[in-house]
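Chain A, query sequence.
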Amino acid sequence: MDTMNTTYYFGAGASALVLPTYSDFTEKLDSFVKLFGSGSGFSKLSPEDRKIALEINRIGNEYLSNEQFSATPDRFARTEFSKGKSLKDLKMLLILFFAERQSSIVSINNDSYKRRILIDPRIDELMSHIIQPIRGKANLDPKFKILTWNYDFQFEMAFGRHSNSSGYHSYIDLQGFPNIDDDDEPRKFDNSRFSIVHLNGVAFFENGAVSMPFNNKISEEEQLVRFIIKYYYHIVRNYCPKKGGIDSLKFAFEYFDETTKPPKAESLDAAITIALNTKDLIISGYSFPSFNRDFDRSIFDNFVSLESVVIKDLPGKEQTLLKTVGNLLLGNFEKNKIEFDINVQTYIN
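Chain A, predicted structure.
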């Protein structure tokens, strides 16, 4: 018999104590982009590194100056995709930005870096609850599964805090999807293990030549800028030409094709298997935007064994979310005659 899951369904609000949400995303991105066009870190760069820095600055400002970008990166990406435009530069910028936001800054004299929290304490608490401590090993309770729309690395970092794992190895130990291995071989999902599925892919890149910047304790702005430039160099100059793009960060809508519905995708296949075997569903920090609705529906149509649903959101928003979730689950209720308890909880960021 398959493991019956307790499944968490997360949106951007799940890591809002640490990372920008849609309300302050462009403001934080603008501060990041400025690192590569001015400031003490930029002024100390070599001529070659300065060229790369200015390229990052140019790409960032190009997006920030586009009025459509101010909505959400996901929605903007969908618009660009529908126009047939490449998303490579946008994905690269997001990977660099999230690497910087999750870097261990120890003493930079800048207000934006003071007392920076690296891991959302709510995620850290959840991960400590999921881990079953065994001497010398962080064992993960297999009944828990996470479906997240976030492309940050918060859960992987939290796991690393409670284990001997880090970076790429954390992702593999957590049975992360989509596959980010260089071999491109599809991985089969195992419902008897814990798993985290990033529905939009993950803003992560690591190979033998470069590790995520947050694996290094950074003490000055120049060091931070150099790490990001090195990161950029290996992604754009070494990785992308071989792979034809950045496949770790793949937006959900990229899996959809006019001739194939529902879409065939490794992450979606894993999410559907999780849904089919879920009895308890907890939804937190997610607003179910219309541009993700097809993908959400592909998953929610398979929650056929539910016994309970818990919805967590900010005060004043929970009833709207309750209606949306109810509509998504209505088909299951009518078709499969399932009955489940549903309740709403509020939290404060």
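The chain has a mean pLDDT of 81. The CA atoms of residues 37 and 54 lie 6 Å apart.
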